[in-house]
Write a structure and sequence with these properties.
This protein is mainly beta and about 170 residues long. The chain has three helices and nine strands. Helices cover about 10% and strands about 40% of the residues. The chain is elongated. The protein has a domain of about 90 residues: Immunoglobulin-like, CATH 2.60.40.790. The strands form three sheets. Strands 1-2-7-6 form a four-stranded antiparallel β-sheet, with no helix packed on it. Strands 3-4-5 form a three-stranded antiparallel β-sheet. Strands 8-9 form a two-stranded antiparallel sheet. The relative contact order is 0.13.
């Protein structure tokens, strides 16, 4: 699209050119998912040097990935010479579900994709969960025991009177 304007002799302002090329994002696009007890964060970062252009930091339960990009291009033809460059810093902060140990975080860079693996702490076993009984009546003392103010009956949370499940965790 920008070539059409160039051929017509129209100089396009930089913000409009970037809009036409789809390059307005100042944030890093990421994909995140859980796999085998880890949170995996992948970011597109083609054409960078991971040793010099990537910073990964952990502050509390916030993982921040910062990538610096620099792009240069030269165009030579019969009519002239054109050199362009653009650069910028792109970052993304990912909230972690729980605090993690920074030494356990691993990062790799392959074929233009930065991958960060964060081992997540194990979640408590389901055996630690228990049902909460709901009593009928105004009082909370003796709930579920048939004591005073309970009406002598209680129901499991998450079931209707016919016993069908609904809602629940």
């Amino acid at each position: 699209m920008t070539n059409i304007f160039r051929r017509a002799g129209v100089d396009i302002p930089e913000p409009f050119r970037r809009f036409l090329e789809g390059d307005l994002d100042a944030w890093l696009r990421v994909e995140e998912y859980r796999e085998a007890g880890s949170l995996v964060v992948k970011a597109e970062a083609p054409g960078i040097d991971p040793d010099n252009d990537v910073d990964i930091t952990l502050a509390g339960s916030q993982l921040q990935i910062t990538v610096r990009r620099e792009e240069k291009s030269e165009h030579k033809d019969k009519e002239g010479y054109r050199s362009e460059f653009r650069f910028g810093t792109f970052s993304r902060t990912v909230s972690l579900p729980a605090p993690v140990n920074q030494e356990d975080i691993r990062a790799s860079y392959t074929d233009g994709v930065l991958e960060v693996r964060v081992p997540l702490p194990e979640e408590p076993a389901a055996g630690g969960a228990r049902k909460v009984r709901v009593s009928r009546g105004a009082g909370t003392s003796g709930a579920g025991t048939g004591g005073a103010g309970t009406g002598g009956s209680s129901r499991d949370m998450g079931q209707d009177p016919e016993g069908a499940s609904f809602g629940g965790p």
